[in-house]
Amino acid sequence: MNSSDEQSLGVQQSRREFLKSSGGGIAIFVTFGGQLGLLEHAEAQGRSGVPADFNAFLRIAEDGRVTCLTGKIEMGQGPITSLPQMMAEELGVAFEMVDIVMGDTDLCPWDRGTWGSLTTRAFGPLLRAAAAEARGVLLDLASQELRVPVSRLEVNAGVVSDRKNGRKRITYGELAKGEPIERHLKLKPELKDVSQFQIMGQPKLRRDSLEKVTGKAKYAADIRLPGMLYAKILRPPAHGAKLKKADTSGARKVDGVRLVEDGDLIAVLHELPDVAQDALGRINAKFDLPPPMLTDQNIHEHLLRVAPKGEVTAKAGNVDKARKLADRMIETRYFDGYVAHAPIETHAALAHIERGKCTVWASTQNPFGARDKIARAIGFSPDKVRVITPFVGGGFGGKTSNMQAVEAARLAQTVGRPVQVMRTREEEFFYDTFRPAAVVNIRSGIDGSGRITFWDYEVLFAGQRGAEHFYEIPNHRTTVRPQGWSGGPHPFATGAWRAPANNTNTFARESQISAMAAAAGADAIEFRLKHLGDPRMIRVLKAAAQRFGWTPAATPSKRGFGVACGIDAGTYVAAIAEVAVDARSGEVEVKRVLSAQEMGIVVNPQGATIQMEGCVTMGLGYALSEEVHFRGGQILDTNFHRYEIPRFSGVPKIETLLVEANDIPPQGGGEPAIVVMGAVIANAIHDATGARLKRMPMTPARVKAAIEEA
Amino acid sequence: MSATISFKLNGERVRLEADENRKLLWVLRTELGQTGTKYGCGRGSCGACVVLVNDSPIRSCMAGVGSVRGKEVVTIEGLANGGELHPLQKAFIEHDALQCGFCTPGMILSAHGLLRSTRKPSREDITKRMDRNLCRCGAHTRIIDAIESAAAELRNGKSTT
Asked: Can you say how many angstroms the Cα of residue A158 is from the centroid of all Cα atoms in its chain?
């Protein structure tokens, strides 16, 4: 027996136990073939620990309740509601009858991680297809029971009946009674057409609210086990610091404390978390600190110096020739700083090892990645590690590296008791994988009639997503240096941050487009429409302008109106903002933001709207106030008193508009509406004051300086 | 110094031995199992740890457990009266005034303090009083809507959603 067989046996055992818990029941495993869901499926191939047997799994219990099992996790973005909506629709049961188990690596099919706005657009079709296929199985069973051919059967809210004789009927629950039935299917996808939808497309309130407003909702740090210890770990004062020596004698004197010194991991454990924290403070540690070369003041010079040559990802015409022929050229360098994820829940995990099996409850966007990483760290095979993901208190791309889960597992292995690791806010800021600082260089030109003749775009360190423009420009070139957003010459870790790369790219691109509109003496929306060919973007922009009540004017019009467009995760966004700027202080008051979005078929309009509102609000943070300050590897923004995220007083009137497009499959919803927020504010500030902001965040000091320069 | 501390927690008398300088947050979450009270920042900046002490919202990460001796502490777990949700809890559900839910207990209990002192708060009143409570998901507008609607229900005995 090879290891993958053993593994699938181990995991199957857990699933069998899960199935047995309800007596009879029908379990349906679906293997996807063909063209469906390749995005997810292809990535699964060739990775260790990926179950080859199936990709989706659902269960129908004797009471007719359906359980949907998914490796996706709930961090506020709403799949706890939208996935059951999809399953109920395709299976033919009431929405209320569908339960969901999320992010449990023993029970749920393998998943790459919850990010990239992929849950609806990439996993959604798989889930819907599995449910549609399961419906076929249930119809077959009903056909045998009722002695009616399948072609004569119909399903309504979990009841199968004979079209010709309504008294011949049987419920899904009745079909599930008796011996457990297990079916393994190869999938031929056949999804319902949007015209048949009864549950998808309906606005649904969140399904986890009751638990969340009563304090019953459990997050990773809320799990309690008998005998558990709380661990606090010795951390360096700066990235790159080396531990010289640590005198732990002070900490050891604290009653009930347990010290672990395991190579790079020095931890204080106690039955009370705050006592462990106090004891940690009694360790006298000396670190060697490298001299601080880089700071938030000089980082961009450094990035410009060390950027790789990069590669051209899009081009047409002849940019160099066109540049010489342009009537007017605008050359601008845009800057973005480091931005923190700052979820209100810090990273936490509880690890428990018992009879050779390690179970870890973790706040993670990536439970299967956590499982594999933990297994490697403690020398277990992946099937002996189970990661359970309770509610996650915000992620935004920041809960993917699973360091805290590995630490908890290592410590649990060492001390032989369950161990919780929960980061302090200071650790959270220190170990965050920030959105990278970046530079964008744009040279672009217009001719005498106000048409864009060339576009030469170069992005340094933000990444490729959103770098390529979507305007009709005869000569253009996009260069990315480099493509990704992790690694690079930063003094600390960087990583994906809600709509990675696209926030920086859209800020630069849409600022430059508006700057060109201003140079051409044109209205910013008319100028865009003149250069757009993509009908999806044209529709969204026109819808936004109409809803806002936009009247054309050359900028700066003093109205304080700005516009920006963007594409992310297959979704098209146009936003319009109104600001008021206090020229003396540089303070920007955002009065109104309208966000319009076309995301194909909308599964849950309520959830989609809320994601847009969240994107607008969170986007105001990186646009106006959020920036990580640092000196070498030392992070100076240690807590919320230094790092300013949006507050109630900064939130404007937010309007959202979902532009219907039922001929397009569902696209991403968690990220797209945030990408336009930098540019829409920069353009509104320009319209109000004539000052062009080229650096985010647009703090009062920077706004004031730009006004004085203008 | 370790001392015997007794107070009322969600209507029940509790008595424990603890260093009275230990922060209420950790005692609630650890010995008393009230994990609905959240740690967010540890320095009173975010409001995730807000609980009611004698009906006033306080930041439990800043308060020594000794300071609640003889007082009444209400956590999010104790806000519902029997099975009946508080109008704020109902309004948060009806308005979808949360996403990840981690700031929600502190939001609701902070709003509770506001509604106790201001029967009919304007949106500006709500914004001002809630401004030191942080939400990263961006549920702010819906939270204001929910508080307004709960205030109306408390005044009229019915919701105006």
From this structure: 34
- The per-residue pLDDT of chain A, averaged, comes to 92
By DSSP bridging, strand A357-362 and strand A588-598 are unpaired
Q: How close does chain B come to A481, measured CA to CA in Å?
A: 31
C-alpha A383/C-alpha A4 separation (Å) is: 9
Number of Cα atoms under 13 Å in the Cβ half of residue B12:
9
Q: How many other C-beta atoms are found inside a 10 Å radius of the C-beta of residue A5?
A: 10
> Which residue type occupies A399?
K
d(CA B47, CA B105): 9
Chain A residues close to B92, C-beta within 8 Å: 209, 213
Residue A205 near residue A334 (C-beta atoms within 8 A): no
A-B contacts (CB, under 8 Å): 176
* Cβ distance of A344 and B138 shorter than 8 Å: no
* Contact flag A215-B23 (C-beta cutoff 8 Å): no
CA distance B72 to B70: 7
- What is the rounded CA–CA span in Å between residue B127 and residue A589? 15
pLDDT in tens, chain B (161 residues): 789 999 999 999 999 999 999 999 999 999 999 999 999 999 999 999 999 999 999 999 999 999 999 999 999 999 998 889 999 999 999 999 999 999 999 999 999 999 999 999 999 999 999 999 999 999 999 999 999 999 999 998 754 43
Closest residue to B96, CB basis, from A344, A393, A606:
A606
- Measured between beta carbons, the chain A residues lying within 8 angstroms of B79 are 214
Tally Cβ neighbours within 10 Å of residue A301: 11
Q: Is A553 exposed, middle or buried (0-12, 13-18, 19+ CB in 10 A)?
A: middle
Q: Test B101 with A221 for CB contact under 8 angstroms.
A: no
Cα(A371)–Cα(A389) distance, integer angstroms? 11
Band of residue A5 on the pLDDT scale cut at 50, 70, 90: very low
A231 at interface of B, judged by CB pairs closer than 8 A: no
**% of residues, chain A, pLDDT over 70:** 92
Instruction: Supply the pLDDT for residue A49.
Output: 41
Residue A272 with chain B: CB contacts under 8 Å: 22, 26, 30-31
Backbone angles phi, psi at A379, to 5 degrees: 70, 30
Residues of chain A contacting B63 with CB distance shorter than 8 Å? none
Alpha carbon of residue B91 to chain centroid: 15
pLDDT in tens, A487-520: 889 999 999 999 999 999 999 999 999 999 999 9
Gap from B73 CA to chain A (nearest CA, Å)? 15
Q: Is the pLDDT of residue A633 over 70?
A: yes
